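User: I'm preparing a small set of examples for a lab meeting where we compare how different chains pack in three dimensions. I only have the primary sequence for this one, and I'd like the structure in token form so I can line it up with the others. Please keep the answer compact; I'll paste it straight into my notes.
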Amino acid sequence: MELLKLATDWAKAEVFSTRFFIIFATLFLIASIGFWQLGKTDLAKAYIIPTLVAGLLLMTIGLGLFYTNKSRITQFETTYNTNSSAFIASEISRVESILKEYQTIVFKAIPIIIIIAALLIIFINTPTWRAISITTIAMLIVILLIDGTAHSRIEAYHKELKLVDLKNENKK
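Assistant: Understood. Below is the structure token output for the 172-residue chain.
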């Protein structure tokens, strides 16, 4: 039962965390509307589409993760009650897979994309490319902030899963 509470608490924390994607998405969408309504310069007008796209991407990520983790909470109990040892094994493999993805995507690919976007600001001096680059950097920083805390949470969850698995192995 300790494992079920651990898994449920992790999923609830993820649901809470994904709300920040939705909040930032809303801010990007509001910024897009603001640039559309109030933008007078070429640079301000150039921000309309990039901030709209960033807002829609963050909203898609946020809503997708929100509903996935929300449904996972109810699935945890069913799966755990069916076969707790299989639940532990599947959770450990799922979490290890996610940790590998974090290392590749969040902590390598995203910083490289930020560097490329920063270089575009330096070398391409048009309002559209500046707006795209700056919006891309802002969106990716939001993703890094949220996923950085999620990474810490899933690492702690992984350690706890390993401890529970070890306890179960010692009981056998």
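A couple of notes for your slides: Residues 98 and 154 are 8 Å apart (CA to CA). The mean pLDDT is 92.

User: Perfect, thanks.
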